[in-house]
Specification:
This protein is of the alpha/beta class. Helix content is 39%, strand content 21%. The strands form three sheets. Strands 5-4-3-2-1-15-16-17 form an eight-stranded mixed sheet, with helices on both faces. Strands 6, 7, 8, 9, 10, 11 and 14 form a seven-stranded mixed sheet that branches.
């Protein structure tokens, strides 16, 4: 009988609603799994470390154990304030990525450990990200993003290339030719973009990290650190950068609002989306299943105890 020991959840489009807050049903369902079955909740996100830390605090002490940030480039033990993984892109890789983006007219941005940094000239493509409003921080736009990135003292663990599906398809082969990179599956922004005429458009992106850096790699590292087997892991996500993460888990859950590619690798698809407590609803159902398993195991144990007390011939 499998008893799960770790729950790994994505943030945007999964644990968070579109206002970038955790629905109460999600918080309570995760707390119950932790309190009743010892299941450790872990945030795994493309967001910067400090943003993930902020969300963990909103969730309560159960969430303040481990964080996987910037798609696995950072794995942080919050209790010990110790980085178990810390991998960043090299200046040469960053410059090569910028060159491809400039040649192809693509928007790009980066993640530091503290925040997301974007090009001010593409600000028309964004609606306000509620995450930074919730944190009381302005979004970090830069007029000369290239100079900013190349002179930045903080490391850059993640570089993102943004555009329409057509724009990304045209540039993908050139991005793939840069050595030593890990390029995520194509994701769609949970906050829509607008074109220069103010029309809403779908903006997609690829997250780019050091080769080998994925959420799955970080999960494997953490599981080995904690002595947890793959089959004892639950993973929940919605985007292309969650595919490997779900493949690293025993129980694979895709959100109702997830990409078709992610749904194909999932065992379960939630009945509700991220705005209607999809995570909490499915985890409450899981709690019922685990309770039944626990009751059945206890009944078997008692039957065995009774059998041990029976002498031959009784």
């Amino acid at each position: 009988m499998i008893m799960y020991k770790m729950l790994v959840t994505d943030l945007d489009g999964t644990l968070l609603d579109d206002d970038k807050k955790i629905p109460e049903i999600n918080i309570q369902s995760i707390k119950r799994l932790h309190q009743d079955f010892g299941i450790i909740p872990v945030i795994a996100t493309a967001r910067p470390l400090e943003v993930a830390r902020y969300i963990a605090k909103q969730g309560g002490k159960e969430f303040e154990g481990y964080i996987i940030a910037t798609n696995g480039a950072i794995l942080m033990d919050l209790q010990k304030e110790e980085c178990l993984i810390n991998q960043s892109l090299s200046p040469e890789q960053i410059q090569a990525l910028i060159n491809v983006c400039k040649e192809n007219g693509l928007e790009y941005e980066c993640m530091t450990t503290k925040c997301e940094v974007a090009d001010a000239s593409y600000s028309y493509r964004r609606v306000i990200d509620p995450m930074y409003d919730n944190m009381g921080l302005p979004f970090n736009y830069q007029e000369d993003l290239e100079s900013y990135m190349m002179s930045l003292e903080d490391s850059i663990p993640l570089f993102a290339v943004n555009g329409t599906e057509e724009e990304l398809d045209e540039a993908y082969s050139k991005l793939s030719q840069i050595s030593g990179l890990q390029i995520s599956g194509r994701c769609t922004r949970t906050t829509p973009g607008v074109d220069e005429q103010g029309k809403i458009e779908t903006i997609c992106y690829h997250d780019i990290m050091q080769e080998g850096v994925t959420k799955a790699m970080a999960i494997e590292t953490l599981a080995n650190h904690l002595g947890i087997e793959k089959r004892e892991i639950i993973a929940i996500g919605d985007g292309g950068n969650d595919i490997e993460m779900l493949q690293e888990a025993g129980l694979k859950i895709a959100m109702k609002n997830a990409s078709d590619e992610l749904k194909k690798v999932a065992n379960i698809v939630t009945v509700k989306d991220n705005n209607h407590g999809g995570v909490g609803i499915v985890l409450n159902e899981l709690h019922k299943v685990l309770e039944r398993r626990q009751d059945e195991a206890e009944k078997r144990r008692k039957r065995l105890e009774n059998l041990e007390g029976i002498e031959p011939g009784d």
